[in-house]
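LOG
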Amino acid sequence: MTAPGRAAGKGRTGDRIGGDRTGRPRAPARAAPAVPRPGVARRLHRGGGAGWIGWLLAVLIVPVALSGTLLAVWPAVERVAYPTRFAATGAIDPDACVTALHAGAAPDRRIVAMEHGAGVLRFTTRGADGADRLFACTARGAGVSVADATHGAEAWVRRVHAALAVPWVGRGLVAAAGLALIGLALSGLALWGVAVFRGSDGWAWHRWLGLAAALPVLAMAASGLPLLWRGAAADGGAAPLAHPAQPLRIVEAHALALTSGTVARVAWPTRRSPDWLVTIAAGTARQVKVADDTGGALAAVARSDGGGTGEGVAASLHGVRGTGWWRRMLLALTGLAVVVLVATGSGRRTIHTRKPSG
């Protein structure tokens, strides 16, 4: 029997199922918005919400970016720092440099590669212990002068860029900086579409700069990671030949006969691959193999060191060989953009985003 004043089927609020106070059925639950919320990207972009993580990443990223910027414009730096190199007349004889290097270096030290610089030839050598040392050969009167450049300014900048000039754990720190850059670039792109562009906060320009630099930063960081340990992983059992059969002048001449351009780098033949590897800075081919026994050019491929391998593609993207001036400027601007973005973003405590509609 129903209580007076109450309709059948209506009880206390706690006894109703699927209805409201008026007895109407409840509306079905609204589905979650299709657009993902920016919470994860926001936390990743802010270093998990802990301010000290952002400052720690800045300490790792800024030296790598600044050293990369310096290396990109190093030819111009050399003209200012070493004007005597450009005042010297005549071309540097690479074979004379090799002779002088063999005469002054330890007997167990072998030449790995030679790079053409502005008024200087740089030789990378490797000892029996696997340690590399750099030597610079410059013109001196009618001859040449070879000096140990392992502890020079450029070598130090290269060590900072490759390992923060920190032994043992330096490459791991640079790898962490590279992974952090990838995460920051991806999370920044994810936030860009939902970020609130307030004219009063003064940070809209930060977001526009981040948008412009995101893809170059991703390319530099992703291509730099596989190059970190290439020296340690390469040349296993492939020591360079101590005294190859062909002189450098013949090797370079045969390589240039097959393709136009200028020689940027020459890698010595090894026991595993008895061919010279000549990298061309510009022209129809990027790399030419020259046989050490005959001196004849074997093949020309339109790729940088490593051919079609992952390391070769990474080296080409990272601009470590035969980079033109326009690309050097792009690399330098990318490095400066990273420094500006990290410096301004590290002090950013909050990121305002739009709430999903509905």
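LOG (cont.) second protein
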Amino acid sequence: MVVSQFYILSPRGDTIINRDFRGDVSKGSGEMFFRNVKLHKGGDAPPLFYLNGIHFTYLKNNSLYFVFTSLFNSSPSYILELLYRVVKIVKDFCGHISEEVIRANFILIYEIVDEIIDYGYIQNSNTESIRHLVHNEISATSDVCLGGVSSVGTSSSGGSITAGGVATAVGNTVGNSITSISKSTKKLANLSNLSTFSMKNSNTLPSNASQKPIQLNEKKNEIFLDIVEKINLILNFKGEIIYSYVDGVIQVKSYLQGNPYIKIALNEDLYIKNLHSDNTNNVIIDDCNFNHLVNLSQFERDKILSLYQPDGECILMNYRINNNFKAPFRIYASVTYGPNHTVELCIRVRLDIPAQYTCTNVFVNCNLCKHITNVHLDLSSASDLFSAQYIANEHRLLWTIKKFKGESEHSIRSKITLSPGYTFCKRDFGPIYMLFEIPMFNLSKLRIKYLRIIENYKSSNTHRWVRYITQSSSYVYRLH
């Protein structure tokens, strides 16, 4: 496989990074790529496409475009994996990917790219190997400094509050969970397609738990561990689940000195697929796969993930759960046609998790018909925590709940005036989509019993951070 060019483009199409390895592709390929992606019909452009004799491969991360060009028809999976590795290494060094960070560290990024690829051929794609070859220092920006998680001087056995949010510090045993809330706010992307929801910024820190670059933490002895679960679920008009599964991931970001051996103990009652007992209290997952560094024999025997942890970000385990969980949100909705071309839409949402958990920045979105002259919204609770709006150009209702406590419910009533010539049809309303994130809670009941670091030397300043996050990937309620 031969790469001709590497680009990083801004959301506006500006070229931030441009490395031409071979000189065999025209200089205007970046503009050609951006025009094709923006004007692509039928949704997003595919990650690989062929245009004017050039093979383009791209990944989108935080609204930035990472692009490879080539004159050769290479293996799609191979070139996508290489591009993913480049993005991951840049993130490991810079701590966070954003336009500000890329512009502030363009010299460092050029050096990283030159270590990965030489004259279009891959040389190295491992963070640990490259870090000793890169000599430029990271330029800290507000994105890196404000978003990072930092310790306040606790030892390995104590808990602490962090700068960017709140996490759980653990010693040999994971202690009490504390909700994590960052200063960033959620933004909804354009939902004109309404097939999925997407977020610009999460209400907690990113899923790797830390945005700190590896170069700024060589004197720190820290490890961040996340269990992230994403829900895909469809409810019918009766509120019954007709389709559901959870995609889970255990991922770690390490700043440990000397790459020590680590052991992460999971629930002893964890069972995979049909190998479980009849006890319904067991934690059951339907499918899973592991990082190649994990000792599989010890996991089979003791349910322990053990490995020599490399520097940077690493996914230890992916898993999937089908149907064997309770939906966190219950939705009830009705559409009633009234006199004078009016429709009453009522939506009630209940959070069925223990009261100690709080879901922040919940977005409830409902498609409405296109023939509307006026919408009056009435919230069940008058507070700054609740807001609702009718977005006319997208024909949808957006209801925002900033804080939603467990074992509670909220409702909204909408009085909609229809156009005089329109004949009411219930199928023109719905479905309802939800976007949410619940910190320090997971549906699978998968737990970290302990996180042990087997070091060659004694260190009293090792910090361990563990988080649980539940997110909506696709949470849909059908009105009919």
